[in-house]
Amino acid sequence: MASSATDKQHSLQTSSDSLLVQQLKKKGIQFSNNNSVILLASGQEKFDDLFKAIEQAHSSIHLEYFNFRNDSINNELITRLAKKVQEGVEVRAIFDGFGNASNNRPMRKRHLKEIRKKGIEIYEFKPIAFPWIHDVFNRDHRKIVVIDGKIAYTGGMNVADYYIKGTKAVGEWHDMHCRIEGDAVNTLQKIFLQMWYKVSGQNIHGAKYYRGISNADYVKGLKSDTCHSANHKMVGIIDREPHVSKDIIRTFYEKAIDDAQDSIKIINPYFTLNPRLRRALKNAAKRGVKVEIMLSVKSDIPLTPDCGYYNAHKLMKNGCTIWLFKPGFHHTKIILVDGKICTVGSANLNARSLRWDREVNAVIIDKETTKKLDNLFESQKRECFKLTEEKWKEWRTPWQRFKGWLGFLLSPFL
């Protein structure tokens, strides 16, 4: 008991960012302090920035996505990549079999054949095969691009034009990506090359694929990191790999919430949670932390959002503030803690991300980057309604509330 009391006292005396870094280092997460992080808060920003970087690639372009939707933005990407192949740049791409099959504009065999004819190496992770049930789990949900081993992109966006154009079903599609420059790029490159070996059998290695000591201003004309902390940001890359680091993203969220001393802000599209995370959020609100959660009124899939609303209603009763975003669909996956810690990545707060799929998140320990995300959160609250008990009964019909309860029962599989 004395030891437990001492640990609790130590937690209160140690800032949440220092405490979280210590805890994650014990789990094997490596942090570096020489990074820039540039937030890309829309599909237009992301693809504009990415295409400029691709134009200036000298040696290698590596892409790992859940899916490359067979549409206009993908066609533009392939055209640009084919041009770089002609210039002698190595281009490698990985996509997930289930991710491809489950989108409404999948790449067919003939499309892949044409892409390979252009000299682009592209491989599919876990192609769909009979009896199909195995294809639901352990997917590659990561979003990683690494160019020349010098700069990297990661976040929540796949390759699809609806990140720019939206869809008829949900309207605007909101998401978050980031570009990283610094030693954290090496970790993302390592993740990609390990996956490349898994899908292709090719052991790609060597110094040219990794960042050297100084690569400032390597690529010109991209969006700049305007923070005073540019080139000095602490970043750790969390990689969820089944059977290897299966609990790491859940652990990150759990520890970040438990360590919070002042505020927690979350945007996540698939808020099914698990018992530990629900309990952590309740306990945070109970100890006086201001917990704010933003979910979308609209969604791209059935049932899972209903479970999220069910959880949100329960958390509201426990002192959390719930915001429901009305225009479009928020596919963004971020958490902000105490104005010091934030994450941008691919992981949702559902069982698929936390228990099954391959995911990657950048954990950023930086007040200025966190402030930029906080400004986004605050600005978008103007386009939300706040959940109250009265609003809950007005907004959710008895049938919808029943679907939420049903989704809650099925949440270990959503």
Structure description:
The protein has helices at 2-13, 16-26, 43-55, 72-86, 97-102, 109-117, 162-165, 184-200, 248-259, 275-286, 304-317, 351-356, 367-380, 389-395, 398-410; strands at residues 31-40, 60-65, 90-96, 121-125, 144-147, 151-155, 173-174, 177-181, 233-240, 263-267, 290-296, 321-325, 329-330, 334-337, 341-345, 359-365, 384-386. A hairpin with a 3-residue loop joins strand 14 (334-337) and strand 15. The two termini are 38 Å apart. Helix 2 (16-26) packs antiparallel against helix 9 (248-259), helix 3 (43-55) runs parallel beside helix 4 (72-86) and helix 11 (304-317) packs across helix 15. The radius of gyration is 21 Å and the shape is globular. The protein has a 15-stranded mixed beta sheet with strand order 4-3-2-5-6-8-1-9-16-15-14-10-11-12-17, sandwiched between helices. Strands 7-13 form a two-stranded parallel sheet. The chain is built from 15 helices and 17 strands. The model is unreliable at 1-11 (pLDDT under 50). It has 414 residues and is an alpha/beta fold.
